[in-house]
Amino acid sequence: MGDINTAMTEQYRNNFLKEVEANVEEGQWVKMCMQCGVCSGSCPLGPAWEHPPQEIFMMIRAGRRDEVLKSESMWMCTSCYNCIVRCPRELPITHIMHGLANYAHRLGLAPKMNPTRRFAKMFWNNLTKSGRVNEIELSVGLYFMDGFKTGIARAWAMKDIGIGMLKTGRLNPFGFVTHKGCKDKKGIHKMLKKAREIEDRRKGFAA
Amino acid sequence: MARKEYSFYPGCSSERLTSASNYMVSVEAMCKKLDVQLNEIPDWNCCGASIGYAEGGELPRHVMNARNLAISEQVNKGQDVVATCAACWLGAKETKDRLAEDKGLLAETNEALREAGMNLQYKGEQEVRHMVEVLIEDLGYDELKKPVVKSLEGIKFAGYVGCQTNRPFGIAGESFENPKYLDKLVEMVGGEPVEKYDQKVTCCGGALAFSEPEKSQAQIKKIIESAYDHGADMIVTPCPVCQMNVEVYQGQINKRYGTKFNIPVAYYSQLMAVAYGASAKEAGLNGQIIRAPRLEEIAAKAAR
Amino acid sequence: MADMKIGAYVCQGCGLGERLDTKALALVAQKDGKAHIVREHEFLCNGQGLEMIQKDIAEGVNRVVIGACSRRAKAEAFSFENVAVSRVNLREQVIWSQPATEEARELTQEMAADYMRMGCAEAKKVSAPIPNPEHGTDRRILVVGGGVTGMTAALEAARAGYDVLLVEKTGALGGFMARLHKRVPYREPFADPQATGVEGLAAAVMKDPHITVFLSSTTTRTSGAPGRFSVDITTESGQTRTENVGAIVMASGFTPYDAGKLPEFGYGKSPNVVDQAGLEALARDAAVKGEPMRRPSDGQEIKSVVFVQCAGQRDATGTHLKYCSGHCCNTSIKQAMYFKEQNPDIDTAIIYTDLRTPGNGEDFYRSAQRKGVIFTKGKVASVEAGGSGPLSVHFHDLILDDKAATMKDVDLVVLATGQVPNSGVNIDVPVGAEDIDAGKPAEQAVSVLNLTYRQGPDVPQLRYGFTDSHFICFPYETRRTGIYTAGPVRRPMDIAQAVEDATGAALKAIQSAENASLGRAAHPRSGDLSYPSFRREGCTQCKRCTVECPFGAIDEDEQRYPQFNEGRCRRCGTCMGACPVRVISFENYSVDSVGSQIKAVDVPDEFSEKPRILLLACENDAYPALDMAGVSGHTSSAFIRTIPVRCLGSVNMIWITDALNSGYDGVMLMGCRHGDEYQCHFVKGSELANYRMSKIDDTLKNLNLEKDRVRVLEVAIADIGRVPELINDYAAKIKEIGMSPFKGF
After folding, report:
1. Among C86, C443, C518, C642, which is most buried by a count of CB atoms within 10 Å?
2. Rounded to an integer, what distance in angstroms lies between the CA atom of residue C564 and that of residue A41?
C-alpha cells in the first residue's frame, strides 16, 4: 500500500485537489465549496471532528495532503446526511467524506487504531463472506478485535444487551454455524473481485 | 390476487433471529391486512450499509446493490422494489441514481455483474422505494385507516424519524427538518403524536454506536430525553438502526449518565398491526427488549 | 378675494351616512365654517354628485370643501379647474379610525365636526395656483461624461426623442469601459467573460442624429434651473460655447483607488504587482498582440496568479476606503478566467474575506469554481516582492485560522482596489480642509459642473464622496433639481448596474425638463403648480430660507432679498417653516392656511375630559400610514386632530405655539427618518424640523408647560400598525400630565 501512496504523491505533485478529484468518490465537487460552514454546523458529531468538512475542503485546496488523509475527522461521519441536505451548493458532502476516508484507508494513511475504520473493515469482510451480515459473528468479532482478554471484558459489559437480544429472538446464538447467507456466494465473490479490479485500474492503483 | 404487489428487499436485519426480526414480523402482519403482497427478491445480498464505504469503496458497493436490482428486474418484472430498512433503501436508491447519471460506472457495474451467477444485467428499470412511501403514496392515509379496528387512544408517541429514511431522499412532500408523516400515521391509528418533538431527525450515531459508543450514546440520550420531556409514553420509528440504538443502549446510558430511561421503542408497522387487530405476537411485540405493555394490552383486547 | 364663495359637501357613502349625522355636519359647515352652500349627497364621487358640484361652481362657487374620503383617494374626481379644493378626511381618519359602537358615536361626530370646521377654514385661505410664468422651456438633455453610463443615458434620451449634448473630458468616448479587456457576463448562462461592446456603443452615440458629442471638453459654467440651464462647454484649447438645456445627467464615473498607497502589498516595489486596471491593460495588450499574458518584470510565462480582494477597501483603520466597491469580486473572478482561458493549468487563487457577487455573480462564481479557480477565505497581510523574482503572499487563513499562511512562487499579484467617485468639489467641506470621507484634501477636487449656485459648484455628497441620492424613492436625484447623477459617481457599481442607472437617470431628466416646461414641480410633488412667494416689505433679510433650502433654489438678489428660482423649487415649504417673520407662502399652502385650521378646532373646556391633540403629519409617509391604519381597521384616540403638512421642514414654530396657547393639550409631529439613512422626501426637511424642535423646550418653559406637550416622531409609510399605537401612547401620556391650563383664553 505504501507504494501506491508514493506513486500518487509523485503523480499529483503539489496538487492535492487534482488528486482528490481523480481518486476520491465525488471528489470533483470539492472545488465548489463556498465556505459557508453550514455542513460543520449541521454535523451531529461536529465537535468531535478535528477538522470539520468546511475545513477539510479548505485544506484540500491548500494542498495539505498528509494532514487531511491522516486525520481522524472523516471517520466521525455517522452517515446522517444532514450536511448533504443543507449544503446550499448541493455538494454530496457525506459521500466526499466517505470517499476521503476510503482513499486514506486504501493508501494506508488512515489512523491504524481508529475504531470506526477497524469496525468498517470488519463489517465489510463479514457481509461479503456470505453475501449477508452475520450479526453474532460481527458482534463477537468487534469485542475480540483487540485480543481475547479485552474481548471478554467488552462482552461482559455488553452482556445485558446480548441477553436481551437473545431472549427476544433478535440474535442467533448459533449464527456462527447456522448462518447461511446467499446461495451464490461464489458468484458474489467473483463479482466483487472483478469490481475491485476495475476500480483499482481506473484509479491507477493496479500498477 | 393481492391489490398491490411489490418486489421485496428485506435486508440482513430482517432475517429470522436478527436485530430487526420483530420489524419483519409486524410488516408481514400489516401487509396481510392491507392486502399487499411482497415478493422477496431471490438470493438477495447485503446492501453494504453506509459503513461499508471504508473497505468496500465505490464500485463494489454499487455492484452489490446492482445485483439485487438486476435479480429483481429478471424475476419480479414490472414491480417496484420495496425495502423496509432505511439503509437498504438508501443504498439501493443511491446506486440506481448514480448509475443513471454515470454511464461509465454503469458499464463497469455490468462488467462485474457478469461474474456473478444468474446471467445478470442491470438496466435500471424499476423504482426503488421505502415501505413508508408505498403506504402513503400508493395506498394513502384514507385507505390505511380503513382496516383500523382498535384505537391506540391514550398513548403518546414521540415520532422519531431519524436520518436515513429522511435524508438525503426522504419522503416526497415532507421537509428534511420536520417531516410529518410519522405523526400522521400515529394519529391515524388513534394515538397522540408529540407535536414538537425537537429531536425528531437527530442522528442516533448509526454504525458508530459500535465503534464510538460514547459519542453515539450522547446522541441517543438527547433523543430519549426529549421524548420524556414532551410526555411521550413510547417512541416510534421507521428505521431498524434507530430502533435498535435507541432501545438497547438505554441501560448503558442509565449507567453512564445516571438516568432512568426505560421507554419502549416500536416500529410504525407494529402500531399499525396492533390497530389492525393483530395479536402481540403477530405485531412482533415479543421482540421488544423494553416491553411495550400498553400496546400489548390493546393487542390482547377484542376488536370493537 | 372679494367674491369668495364656499361650497361645502358632505358625502354619505362608504358608511359615512350610517356612522355620522351628516345633516349636523352640513350645519356646522354653514354656521361655523360660513360656507355659502352646503349639501349632503349619498354618493358624492359618482357622476351625479360631481355634476351637482360642477353646477354650483358654474353658479359662482370658487372654494370647494369635500367632506368625504382622504385626499389620497378620488383625487382626480374631486379636482375642479381653477377652484381650490379642501379635502376633509371623514372616512379613513374619522369613521375608520374610530370604533363603530354606539358609545363611540358622540366623540366620532365631534371629530368629524372639527374636521369640517378645519376644511372650511382652510378653504378661505387658499386659492387655485397659477403656473409660474418664469418657467423655461428648453428640453434638451446635457450628459456629462462619455463612459458607459453617459453613453447609455444619451442613447436612452435620444431614443425617447430628446436632443442630447454629450460632454466628454478626454479625446474619445468609452471611459473606463474602454480600458477593459472583457466585461463580467450580463447574459445567460453567466459563465464566461463577455466582450464589452464599447466600440459599438460609442459608434451608436456618434452616429445618432439626436446626440451632439463634445470631446476633450468640460462644463466650465452651469447656471439657471430646470428648463433653462445655461452651460458653458469649453474645449481643451480654451474655446467656449454656451448652450441651453432643460436637464442634466452627471455621469462622471470613478477613479481606481491609488494602489500606490498599498506598499505592504508590493505595489510599486515589483512590476509583478498590479491593480485590476493594470491587469486589464496587460490582458488587452496581450490580446492585441495575439500573445499570452506574460510576467511584466521579465516576460516569463505566468504559472501562478493571486488576487487580493478588498485591497485598500472596507478598511476599518481609517487609512483607506471604508466601503465595498461592489464590483471587484466579480472583476477578479473575470480576470482569473482570463488566465484559465490562456491555460487551464495556471494556478489562480482569489483571497477574500467575504465574497460578494451581486447580480448574477453567483452563477459566475460557480463557473469560476468549475474552471478550477481557487477561492481562499483569508486576509492578506503582505506581499513579499523580491525585485523581479517570484512573489510570496502572506495571509491569515480565516477558515483554518492559520495566521502564517503563505502562497509561494506567485508570478503575478492583482490588487482589487476600489472605486473613488469623480464627484467634484465637496461643497460641505471648507476649501483646504481634509475631506475625511473621501480620504483626500478637498482642494484637490476639480469641479465637474461649475455651478454658479450660491451653495457651491457641484452637487452635494452624502457619504464617502458619492453624490447624495434618495436611495429609496428617487435614486438618481440630487439636491440640485434637474440634475441627476448616474453610475459609479452615485454609488460603487459595475457595468450592468451603471447601464440601469443611466436609463433611470435619463428618464428622470426628461420628466424634469417636461415638468419645468409646464411650470410644474418635479417629484415628489410632481405636477404641483404652486410655488413660494414672499412679502418683500416684511422680510428681514435673515437668509434662513436661502441657507436652509435643501435644493439650492433660493439665491439673493442685488438688494440681498431672497430670489426664488421656481424651476429648482420642490415645493416642500422648508423656507416657509424657516421664516421667522412668516412672509413666505404658497397659494395653496401657507402659515395662515394651516394656522386657521388649528384655530378652527373647537377646544372643550378643562373639565370636559376631552383633550385636543394636534397632529402635524408629513403627507409623504405619516399621513398615508394614518390612512392605511384606518383602512386596516386600527382604531386610535378620538382626541386627535390631524393636519397633513408637505414636509416637517415646512412646519413653522408659530403653529405649535399658537396651538398650545389656544388650549391644545399636546402637539405631535410625525415625519420621516433623518440622518445618514434619511427617508425624508426632501432630504433635509425632517432633519431641519428636528433641529428646530430641539429648541422647543425653551418655548415650553416660557409658557410654563410640561416637556411632553410636544412630541416629535419618526414614522415610515409601512408603520401602519405602529401609528395608532403612537397616537394612543401619546393620548395616555396627555391624560397622565393632565389638561392644558390654557383653555378658554
Report:
1. C86
2. 63
* Residues of chain C contacting A38 with CB distance shorter than 8 Å: none
The boundaries of the domain holding residue A138 are 115-197
Q: Is C365 on the interface with A (CB under 8 A)?
A: yes
Task: Kindly determine whether residue C400 and residue A59, on different chains, have CB atoms separated by under 8 Å.
Answer: yes
Q: What's the pLDDT at C1?
A: 47
**Same-domain check for residues A90 and A104:** yes
Chain A residues in contact with C376 by the CB 8 A cut-off are: 58, 61-62
Taking the CA of residue C724 and the nearest CA in chain A, the distance in Å comes to 42
B54 contacts A120? CB cut-off 8 A? yes
Residue A40: CATH number of its domain: 1.10.1060
**Distance between CA atoms of residues C557 and A166, nearest Å:** 107
In a domain? residue A204: no
Q: Is C400 on the interface with A (CB under 8 A)?
A: yes
Considering only CB atoms, B248 lies closest to which of A164, A192, A196, namely: A164
Question: Within an 8 Å CB–CB cutoff, is residue A61 touching chain C?
Answer: yes
- ipTM score for this prediction: 0.95
Residues A99 and A7 in one domain: yes
pLDDT tens digits for range C504-551:
999 999 999 999 999 999 888 988 999 999 999 999 999 999 999 999
Inter-chain residue contact C397 with A62, CB threshold 8 Å: yes
Whether residue C229 contacts residue C513, with contact meaning beta carbons closer than 8 Å, is answered with: no
Contact, A69 vs A107, CB < 8 A?
A: yes
Class at the top of the CATH hierarchy for domain B4-130: mainly alpha
Q: What's phi and psi for C97, nearest 5 deg?
A: -100, 0
Q: Choose, out of A31, A68, A87, A90, the residue to mutate when testing the contact with C (most C CBs < 10 Å).
A: A31
Q: Which residues in chain A have Cβ-Cβ distances shorter than 8 Å to B12?
A: 127, 132-133, 135
Task: Give the predicted TM-score (pTM) of the model.
Answer: 0.89
Interchain contact, A76 vs B212, CB within 8 Å: yes
Question: CA C372 to CA C308: how far, in whole Å?
Answer: 17
User: Which of the listed residues A111, A136, A167 is the one where a domain comes to its end?
Assistant: A111
Number of domains into which chain A is organized: 2
Q: Is residue A202 part of a domain?
A: no
Residues C196-232 as b/e (b if ≥16 CB within 10 A, e otherwise) read bebeebbebbeebebbebbbebbbbbbebbbbbbbbb
Which residue out of A16, A35, A38, A67 would a mutagenesis test of the C interface target, given it has the greatest number of C Cβ atoms within 10 Å? A35
CA–CA distance from A18 to each of A22, A65, B190, B282 (Å)? 6, 11, 57, 56
Percent of chain B as helix, strand, coil, to the nearest 5: 50, 10, 40
Residue B67: which of A48, A85, A191 has the nearest Cβ?
A: A191
Query: Which domains does chain C carry?
Result: 1-128 (3.40.50), 141-256+421-517 (3.50.50.60), 259-417 (3.50.50.60)
User: CB burial class (10 A; 0-12, 13-18, 19+) of residue C274?
Assistant: buried
Confidence label for C443 from pLDDT (cuts 50, 70 and 90): low
> Longest C-alpha distance within chain A, in Å?
58
Looking at A96, A111, A126, which one is the last position of a domain?
A111
Q: pLDDT tens digits, residue range C300-338?
A: 999 999 999 999 999 999 999 999 999 999 999 999 999
Q: Which candidate from C369, C372, C399 shows the least CB-CB separation from A58?
A: C399
User: Is B56 within 8 Å of chain A by CB?
Assistant: yes
Fold adopted by B150-300? Rossmann fold (3.40.50)
Helix (H) or strand (E) holding C234: strand C229-235
Note the pLDDT of residue A12: 84
Instruction: Tell me if residue C636 falls in helix, strand or coil.
Output: coil
**Any A CB within 8 A of B101 CB:** no
A118 in contact with C, Cβ within 8 Å: no
Q: Where are the domains of chain B?
A: 4-130, 150-300
Q: Does the CA dihedral C532-C533-C539-C541 come out positive or negative?
A: positive
